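name: query_chain
kind: protein
chains: 1
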Amino acid sequence: MKPTRLTKLLNIRYPIIQAGMSWASSNAALPTAVTNAGGLGVIAAGPMYLDVFRNTVREVKEAVEGKPFAVNLPLYRPEADKFLDVIEEERVPVIFASQGGPKAHLARFHALGTHWIHVVSTLEHARKAAAAGVDALVVVGAEAGGHPPANGVGTLVAVRRAVMELELPIIAGGGVADGYGIAALLALGADAVQLGTRFLATREAGVHDNYKQAVLATGIDGTTLVGIRKLPIRMTKNAFARDVLEADMNQQDDDAYATLFNSSSLRQAALEGDVERGKVELGQSAGLIDDLPSAAEVMQRLVSEYEAAIHRLVD
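structure:
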């Protein structure tokens, strides 16, 4: 795989990023495996306690032996400033941030040599983050699990437009589970590709086995976008999702809708294994996944598939 602006910036071998996923990568095992296989592993700080987070950062740092790794931090979360302090103290080389403005933090972390990558789901937010001075962007399309753009714009269009307009490196996210998808997005001009659902379905991912089995059971049309009136989530079409979609159809009043929406959580699915009433956040790429290998095996496959895709075009 040819070097890109992003691989050169972060000093990683492959332009492959493991998405920061609450609980799935809120551990040392998954980020370590991805980084040691030549990609960029990302610790998801979102649901972690501060002391556990610090210990996990130190564990990953020791296990990767100087290779780059990252932390994903939603800036809106309680005690975000304390987590940023830990990131500074532990000299984490890369930050992936979302759901908050980066401008107030950039000088502090750039002075340390830490690269700040901002995750965005709309072109408007991409422009603002680029103007603020971030080092790179993750541009997420509608196919992505978790919180994709409510406007429904797909990855191919969102990423291509960002590449056309913005000068900084672009990481594409949404709808990719293999090396063929990586080749397609790099051909659009992306500098790297972020994969979430594919790494969720690995042995190192720190979620309940029921959640992993839900990935395998979900077809390409097996996810839906729920909560348009609140914070849109792409997830499986389980009992909870059906109830929310029915509430949308019936124009349920705001209070009742909020009560219903807040009756379920990602934790319920990820840790407790309730895949019928919990928020089983998955991307459409779940329909391309049918096994639970190790993260290192996934990395090897992604590179081989990418090479096969390129050879198919040029031979």
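note: DSSP finds 14 helices and ten strands in the chain.
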